[in-house]
Every structure is written in C-alpha cells, then in structure tokens.
Amino acid sequence: GAPDLSGRLEKPRVRFDDVGGMDAIKDEIRLKIIHPLKHPELYQAYGKAVGGGILMYGPPGCGKTHLARATAGEVSASFIAVGIEDVLDMWLGSSEKNLHALFDEARRNRPCVLFFDEVDALAANRSDLRQSAGRMIINQFLSELDGATASNDGVLVLAATNAPWHLDPAFRRPGRFDRILFVPPPDAPARAAILRVLAAGKPQQALDFDQVAKRADQFSGADLKAVVDLAVEAKLREAIASGVPKPLTTKDLLAAAALVKPSTKEW
Ligand code: ATP
C-alpha cells in the first residue's frame, strides 16, 4: 500500500554550526542551495541556473544525513528523509503514484529538503526486483527530480551513497546530480570540531578536543558520537552513585575512545 509519509516531515532545528568539520561541503551547499534561496536575484543576474541535486558520497557515519538535515535547518526548510527501502515499498505498492505523492508532499511544505539515502541501491540489481522494474523506478525518480528542478519550486534534493560507481549514469546528467561531493572520513581538526559539537551543552572541564582527536584516528562522526555517549554514560553512573554530577574530562573521553573501534579503515 501507500507508504505513510505523515510523521516523516521534520522541521529540523540543527544548523551548520551543529555539524563539525565538512567545511568544503558546507561551502558547496551554500552556493548551490542556500544562497539561491536567499538571493535568487543575484543568481538570475549571472544567468546561473538554480536547482539540480547534490549527491554526497563517502563512508557510512560521516555526517551525510546530519548535514542534509542541517541544510534544511539553515534555511528553515522542511525535511523528509527517504531510505531505499521506502522507495522500493513505494514501487511494490505501485510507486508511480507514491513517488509522486512524496514530491507533492515536499512541494506542499516548501521549501523542503528531500533526502534520499543509499540512492545507488535504486540502480543495483536486486533479487526481488527484475531489471526492468529497477529501470522503471529510476525513470520515475529522475522524472520527478527533473520536474522539481525545472519548476524551481523550492524542493531541494540531496542524496547520499556509499557506492557512486553503482549509480546509473542517467543520474549524472546536467541538471540532475551533476555534482558529486566526496564526504571523507574526518581528519584530526574535523574530528576535534565534531567532538566539540557533540560535547556542547554537557557539563565539562577544559576538554582538550585536539588531544582526543589525535587518539581517534580513522573514527567516523558516528564513532565519535559513540565515544561521547560512552563517556557520558560513565559519568552518569558515577553521578548516580555519588549523587553529585561531575564535569566530563579529557581523560573520560580518552578512556571512551580506547573502547571504540574506528570504522573508516578501508577508506
Ligand atoms: P550513513 O551512510 O550511515 O547514513 P551518514 O554519513 O549519513 O552515514 P550520519 O547518519 O549523518 O552519517 O551520522 C551519524 C551520527 O553521527 C549523526 O547522527 C551525528 O550524531 C554524528 N555525526 C556524524 N558526523 C557528524 C559531524 N560532522 N558533526 C556532528 N555530528 C556528526
């Protein structure tokens, strides 16, 4: 049946400041999405076409979804995240209508950032879908994307993939996902920035984020979140036992980092 899109619509409050590192990608998104919304007349003056999608690729857990959500937050737009399973469900429930309903829902709530995760899987061979079915889904998706772009109606499409080489070349045509942005595993300064964001608002004492970042080689953003979560849990246990909350220290973060395995090794 038709997927239930209610409850999917978010009004994110996270902003770019809540995303550590990723400076080059933020710049690109500012140029392609944020400034066109804020200064359409400037883009018109230079004859610069607005629209098309942005495709991000890189290892899991390095902030693609987080950044997409923050992009919506930056321009007070609505946000809908769609996984590949949703799209396949839509197809199994006759997705022509449903994929259209999804873009309609985005239009009704414009400006709206529509985020497709694992978009490459649309094009991949799947045992439960014949090749021709995959083709149909792709075509429907691309025609909705082209429609949103052509009408310039405030639906901004961001997509993410871990495997851009599986992506159908039709996605890459001009006006579609003509720009692919690599989202690398965070380097040491980016890791420090991410840790700072993750620890913000928690009781803390002169945290040396650079030192922790150095000991977190090849950690993804999600790994760093696990580090902060573990350190906070340890602190909570102490606080419950003693009845006194103590601030997070560098030592706490280092101890937690020693327990988390880096997940971006092969990248
Ligand atoms: P996936 O491909 O698995 O969806 P992803 O690249 O979309 O991975 P996210 O889901 O955005 O990764 O990241 C997982 C979590 O890690 C986020 O919810 C966030 O808490 C944290 N995180 C990741 N990157 C950052 C970052 N740059 N700044 C702050 N938090 C981050």
TrEMBL record:
It comes from the Bacteria. GO terms for biological process: cell division; proteolysis. This is Cell division-associated, ATP-dependent zinc metalloprotease FtsH. Residues 50-187 form the AAA+ ATPase domain. It comes from Frigoriglobus tundricola. The chain holds residues 154 to 420 of 446 of the full protein. Keywords: ATP-binding, Cell cycle, Cell division, Coiled coil, Hydrolase, Metalloprotease, Nucleotide-binding, Protease. GO terms for molecular function: ATP binding; ATP hydrolysis activity; metallopeptidase activity. Belongs to the AAA ATPase family. Signal peptide: none annotated. Transmembrane segments: none annotated.
